[in-house]
Amino acid sequence: MSQLKVERLEEYLTTVYKKKSKVLRVVPLKGEKSQDLKEFGYGVPYYIEFVVDQNTKRVVLETMRPEGFGHDYFSDRAAILLWQHFSFNSLPNHVHSVDVGAFTSDDETLKSLGDCREFFIVTEFAEGELYHSDLDRIKSEAGLMSVDEERCVALSGYLAKIHSTKKNAPELYLRRIRDLLGHGEGIFGLTDSYPKNLGYVDETYFTELEKACVEWRWQLKNKTRRLSQVHGDFHPWNIMFKKGSDFAVLDRSRGEWGEPADDVSALTINYLFYSLQTCGRIEGAFLRLFLLFWRNYLNRTHDEEILDVVQPFYAWRSLVIASPLWYPKLTVETRSKILSFATRMLKTKTVDLDDFEHYFE
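Request: output the structure for the sequence above.
Response:
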């Protein structure tokens, strides 16, 4: 915890905006209102409203928690936030980063860089509602509105657009595929995070899954021509809709360039996830959105090869949504179906969208 005071925050904002700043309000986005930021919690985003040059501005200040997944060291967290500051502003529709800075060793001073103890990032505040709220509504009402299909197509089209930007840098593609397995936020980081003595999965399962993923890494290594502009963590909690199909994206992750299947799997697996939670099967409204997303993406990109490379990315995202750490309230039956799906994906040469339900049977 830090005993950060409002006057220190005002000094920092004055430095960033180069004009006198006056803080009006500081609100933890996960917690109660605070006026002096006492007991400032690392990893908790703070909404800050302030006046500079007679204009009211709103930003979000956030640090990272040192809770595994490759975030263990101060330098890990610093590297991520420094990269995010520069990469957020180069991706269309992404919420802009204002600055990256650091807390100093006295726990009270904020400045852009220097004698730092922990880094933070400041981004513009985005109006709207997270996309998972739409999925929650569909789950409870078991039906689609016209806006649901419009938003699904908009998201699919957005990925098709950003993925059309290519880069000839084979070493970056190799790194992205290597990180898919070995990064703290990747497959090995996820398998390490599962508690021991779970009744529905054991070390044998994870051993076999990791072996299969290593084989997939060697299959993908020769596909460096697929390197594309990516978001890197394109899921419903990082997408903010305003009105209609107008949206902004948040928290770009793990590199500006990568495999398009990363983004497509990150979003589409959530349609499957919500379908399993709704009825225990892949059917109905969420299957319709899943197929609509995929078919629009393929019509826009003509990238049929993605169906030959998406499998390990689906396995990775399956480990996320089946995790008792991230989703503690799931039933054992749902977790088991998701983990079985991961295994089936890794054994599949080409994904069959026309009979996708059978991967969960």
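Confidence is low (pLDDT under 50) at residues 31-41.
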